[in-house]
Amino acid sequence: MRQIAFVILIAIHFSAQCIVTKFEDVEEALKCPQIILDNLHVPAGLTLKLNLTDKAEVVFRGNISFGFKHWDGPLVTINGTGIIVRGESNSVLDGLGQSYWDGQGGWSNSKPQFFTIQAFGGSIFRDIRIINTPKDVVQITNSDRVEFANWFIDDSLGDPGIAPKGQEGHNTDAFDVWNSTNVVIRDSVVYNQDDCVALRCGSNISVSNLYCHGSHGLSISVGFSNDSVALNTIRNVSFSNSILDGGRNGIHIKTHIDGGFGNITGVIYSNITIKDIQYNGILIEQNYKNSPPKNATFEAQEPRNNVPIRDLILVDVTGSVTKNAIPIEIVCADEGCFGWRWFGVKVEGGKNNNCNFEPHGFIC
C-alpha cells in the first residue's frame, strides 16, 4: 500500500504545476511541466538556470529580483525545445541596473548580462517585463524557430539627463541575435541606451512592431569573428512597422574593419518611422571599429569590403533628426555594396546627407 501511495504522489508531482518561491528549490522543479517562479530572489553571483524539459512552461509571477555583484553573469539562462516562457500581468524582473551603471557599460567594471537563451522547436517567450538591466538584456544564441512577443524593457532610469552624470546605462542592448535561424521578435517596447535590436549572424529573422526609445537603432553588426565566414554572415532579414524615437541612430548597419570575411544579403526595412534622432537617421558603414564611450578618438577609418552588403531594400523609411545630426550617411568600400533599392526614403532635418554610394531609387 505504501508503494502504491508513493507512485501516486510521484504522478501528481509530475502532472501538476510547481510553484517555486526559494532559489534552492529551482533545480528540483525543473522536472515539472509547468514551473511558476513566484517572487523569487536569485542570490548575487548566481545564475537562474532553467534547463527545461520539452514543451515545459515557465511563468514569472510577482517581483523576480537579483542580488548585486560585479560579474559577467548571465542572471538567467533558458534552454529548451517547444517551451513557453511568459510573465503574468503583475510580474517584473529587476536587474538593479542603478547599482552597476557608470556610463561605460562593458568597458569598465564587470556587469552581468541578463538573459542567455537557446531554444528550438517553436518556443515562445512572451509578456516579459524587465527593468534596470545592468548591461545587455537578451542574447539569443544558436537557436531555431523561436518567437519573442510583447516584451517591455525599461532602462529609462539610465538615460542621460535622468541618471546622475557618470551613472548612465550603456551597452544595454535589448535583443541580440547570434547564429540563429527562424527568429521572430515582435510587438515590444524598449527604453534603453544601446541597440534596440542587434543582429550578428543568422538567417530568416523577422522584427516587427517595435517601439524603441533612446536606442542606437535597429541594427545589423557583422564581423565579430576573425576566421568564420558563417559567423560573419546574415541573410533574409525583415524589419517592419517600427518606431525609433529620440535615440542615437535609427537604422544602423555596420561591418567591422577588424573582423574576418562574411556577407550581409537580403535585408529589408519597411515602414520605419524615426523621430528626433541625435546622430544618424540612417547610418550604413563599412568602416566600423568598436570603441569605448569615453576618451575615444573616433577617427574616420578607411572602409573595407570584407563583409559585402548585397540586396539592401528600404521602403517607406521616414522621419526626422535633430539639428546637429546627419539624416542619411553611407560609407561603402570599393566593391562593398551591391544591388541596393530604396523607395520612399525621406529623413528631414539636421545637416546634409553624406554618401559615397547611392542606392537605386534614391538621390543622396
Automatic annotation (TrEMBL):
Keywords: Cell wall biogenesis/degradation, Disulfide bond, Glycosidase, Hydrolase, Repeat, Signal. GO terms for biological process: cell wall organization; pectin catabolic process. It catalyses: (1,4-alpha-D-galacturonosyl)n+m + H2O = (1,4-alpha-D-galacturonosyl)n + (1,4-alpha-D-galacturonosyl)m. The keyword Cell membrane does not apply. GO terms for cellular component: extracellular region. One of its GO terms (molecular function) is polygalacturonase activity. Pfam families: Glyco_hydro_28. The keyword Repeat applies. SMART domains: PbH1. This is endo-polygalacturonase. It comes from Ceutorhynchus assimilis (cabbage seed weevil).
